[in-house]
Amino acid sequence: MDRRVFLGGIAGLVAAARAAWAQRAGKMPHVGYVTSNPRTANVDAFEQRLRDLGYVIGQNIAVEYRFGEGHADRVPALVDELLRQNIDVLFATSAYAIGAAKQASTSVPIVGVDLETDPVDAGWVKSLARPGGNVTGFFLDMPELGGKLLEFLREAIPRIQRVAVLWDAQLAEAQFKATESAAQARRFGLQSLAFRKPQEFAAAFEAARRQKAQALVLLSSPAVFLHLKRLGDFALQYRLPAISVFPQFANVGGLMGYGPDLGDLFRRAANYVDRILKGTSPADLPIQRPAVFELAVNLKTAETLRLTIPPSVLSRADKVLK
Q1: Engineered SS bond to 294: which of 17, 228, 247, 264, CB 3.0-4.6 Å?
Q2: What's the confidence (pLDDT) of residue 23?
Q3: What span, in angstroms and rounded, lies between the C-alpha atoms of 249 and 75?
Q4: pTM, to two decimals
Q5: Rounded to 5 degrees, what are φ and ψ at 283?
Q6: CA–CA gap between residue 116 and residue 97 (Å, rounded)
Q7: Where in the chain is the domain with CATH 3.40.50.2300?
Q8: CA 1 to chain centre
């Protein structure tokens, strides 16, 4: 038998089983998807994993999307809209979306993806192993990652002594404090560039220039992710070697990016949505951390900045852009 025909038959059987399950449940499963940012490739990763699991959007599952387009203040209203749709599961990405969802409902299952928040400290879950409520998901919760970014900078550019850190004052205090401690341990001079809105980015880079920062670290924030290209342009304009917790930063002109594979997180989140739709309680699904981290290096940016990235860094890079 032709292998493609065989695999296609298997996929069809899985999809049919899903459809039959939905009919037995009395209605098509209904998933809400809310984020403070616009649609990105992460949505595609989520949808692809649903297809791999046998779901066909519009046939045996419905997915309602709400995008905040970078406006966190819009998110609570978007969450309310979705809850009025009588959804079975709410998939919320970013601290703003998860926080609004948790405040709006203590009964609708919530699967979250968030890179800034400790879900226990935030009061969203009782423990990582047994969340105990209606929230579960995938959380970075690794403020020490800022220290790893500093290590990559020092290895790539040994002469660096003073580093500026751009961080979201509304979400990333724990990240900044951990990065500050790591900088002190490595004898870096550190300049804090806290922001509350993207309109402050230009002033932050001017402050870095005035205080003679030699490199820049971008900590995690929905606003940073949304404006990676703009921040990459600023870094080149001010001739600052920059590294971000988002590997995609290297794709848009940043020198380096090191952090979690977001596509992997969104695919794993789809697995949790599937398990909840099949009857598992979010209270019993443990909070997980990212499993895949990537290092990306932009050699074109290095050349523009007249830097030579050593082989010790390039040999560990998952992606080298030339």
Answers
A1: 247
A2: 38
A3: 25
A4: 0.88
A5: -60, -25
A6: 12
A7: 3-141+261-292, 145-260+294-321
A8: 42
